[in-house]
C-alpha cells in the first residue's frame, strides 16, 4: 500500500486558496477536519471583522454611543470575545473598560459613579469586561458587598439603564454561559499554562465550589434587570470560536449601517445566542 508523505511548509505556501489547501490535504491522505474548521473560522471572523469596521465608521459618523457589556462566570471567554471584536477597530473611537476593585475613595461614592465616567462619548464604542453587574453576582457571592447594598443595586440599575437609554446610549448586554465541567477544564488549563497562570485568581478558585450560589444570583439578576430597553442576551460559550462569531453577528444585526454586506450571514444562530426568558433552559 502506498504511504503518502505529510504536508510541508512549502505545500502551505503554494496553496493560494482554502480550496487548494483542502484538495492537497485530501491528496496526501491527511485528515482535514480540524484544518478545515480553522480555515473556515478564520475566514468568517475576517469577514465579520470587516463588517465591524464599517459599523464603527457609521457609529463615528452618526455620533452614536454604544456600550457592549460582557458578563459571565470566570473562564467563560469574556476577554477572548472582546479581543476579536476590537482587533481591527480604530482605537481612537473604541475602548476597553476592565476596572480593578474600587479604591477607598470610590467605596464611599455612589456605586455607579466610577462607571458613569467610562460610558461612551459620541461616536464611540466601549467594551466592558465586567461592569456594574459585579454587584449583581460576584460581590454578593464572595461577600464583597452588604445585603443592603445588593438590594439597593437591584432597585437602581433598571432606572440607571433607562436614563442611559432615554439619553440615546445603546446598551448591549451579553451573559456568556459555560457548563461546570467546561469551566473546570479551562481552570486546569490556566494552572498548567505559564502564559495563562495570571488569569487564575483566588476568586476563580471559588467558582466551582460556589457554583450553585453563582447560579442563584445570576437568576436573580436576570429576573430583576432584564428589560425591554436593556435586555440580556445569553451566549453558549463551551465552543469558544462559535461563541465569538455569533456574538459579533448579534451586534452587527442590531444596526442598519452603510454598506452592510448581504452575502454574509449576519443574523446570529438562535441555538447559540438567545434573549433571556424565564423558561430558557440554560447550561450554567
Q: What would you say this structure looks like, in words?
A:
The protein is of the alpha/beta class and 284 residues long. 48% of the residues lie in helices and 12% in strands. The chain has twelve helices and six strands. The chain has helices at 9-14, 18-27, 33-61, 78-86, 104-107, 113-116, 138-142, 147-166, 180-192, 202-209, 211-225, 240-253; strands at residues 65-72, 94-97, 124-129, 169-177, 232-236, 273-275. Strands 2-3-1-4-5-6 form a six-stranded mixed β-sheet, with helices on both faces. The radius of gyration is 21 Å and the shape is globular. The relative contact order is 0.14.
Give the overall pLDDT as a whole number.
Answer: 91
- The helix/strand order is HHHEHEHHEHHEHHHEHE
Q: Biggest sheet, open or closed, and with what strands and sense?
A: 6 strands, mixed
Oligomer status: single chain
Measured between the Cα atoms of the first and last residue, the distance is 50 Å
Number of helical stretches of at least 4 residues: 12
Overall SS class: alpha/beta
Strand content: 5-15%
The strand line-up of the biggest sheet is: 2-3-1-4-5-6
Helix content: 40-55%
Rg to the nearest angstrom?
A: 21 Å
Secondary-structure blueprint:
Blueprint: H1 9-14, H2 18-27, H3 33-61, E1 65-72, H4 78-86, E2 94-97, H5 104-107, H6 113-116, E3 124-129, H7 138-142, H8 147-166, E4 169-177, H9 180-192, H10 202-209, H11 211-225, E5 232-236, H12 240-253, E6 273-275
Parallel strand pairs: 1-3, 1-4, 2-3, 4-5
Antiparallel strand pairs: 5-6
Amino acid at each position: 500500500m502506498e504511504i503518502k508523505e505529510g504536508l510541508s511548509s512549502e505545500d502551505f505556501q503554494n496553496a493560494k486558496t482554502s480550496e487548494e489547501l483542502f484538495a492537497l490535504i485530501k491528496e496526501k491522505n491527511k485528515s482535514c477536519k480540524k484544518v478545515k474548521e480553522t480555515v473556515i473560522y478564520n475566514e468568517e471572523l475576517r469577514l465579520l471583522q470587516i463588517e465591524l469596521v464599517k459599523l464603527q465608521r457609521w457609529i463615528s459618523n452618526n455620533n452614536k454611543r454604544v456600550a457592549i457589556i460582557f458578563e459571565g462566570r470566570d473562564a467563560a471567554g469574556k476577554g477572548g470575545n472582546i479581543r476579536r471584536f476590537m482587533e481591527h477597530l480604530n482605537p481612537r473611537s473604541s475602548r476597553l473598560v476592565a476596572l480593578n476593585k474600587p479604591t477607598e475613595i470610590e467605596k464611599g461614592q455612589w456605586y455607579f459613579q466610577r462607571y458613569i465616567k467610562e460610558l461612551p462619548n459620541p461616536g464611540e464604542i466601549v467594551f466592558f469586561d465586567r461592569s456594574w453587574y459585579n454587584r449583581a453576582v460576584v460581590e454578593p457571592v464572595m461577600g464583597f458587598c452588604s445585603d443592603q447594598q445588593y438590594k439597593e443595586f437591584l432597585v437602581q440599575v433598571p432606572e440607571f439603564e433607562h436614563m442611559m437609554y432615554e439619553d440615546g446610549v445603546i446598551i448591549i448586554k451579553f451573559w456568556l454561559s459555560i457548563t461546570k465541567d467546561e469551566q473546570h477544564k479551562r481552570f486546569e488549563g490556566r494552572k498548567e499554562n505559564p502564559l495563562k497562570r495570571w488569569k487564575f485568581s483566588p476568586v476563580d478558585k471559588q467558582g466551582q465550589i460556589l457554583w450553585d450560589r453563582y447560579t442563584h444570583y445570576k437568576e436573580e439578576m436576570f429576573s430583576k434587570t432584564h428589560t425591554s430597553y436593556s435586555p440580556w442576551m445569553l451566549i453558549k460559550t463551551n465552543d469558544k470560536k462559535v461563541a465569538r462569531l455569533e456574538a459579533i453577528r448579534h451586534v452587527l444585526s442590531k444596526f442598519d449601517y452603510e454598506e452592510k454586506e448581504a452575502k454574509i450571514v449576519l443574523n446570529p444562530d438562535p441555538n447559540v445566542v438567545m434573549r433571556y426568558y424565564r423558561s430558557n433552559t440554560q447550561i450554567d
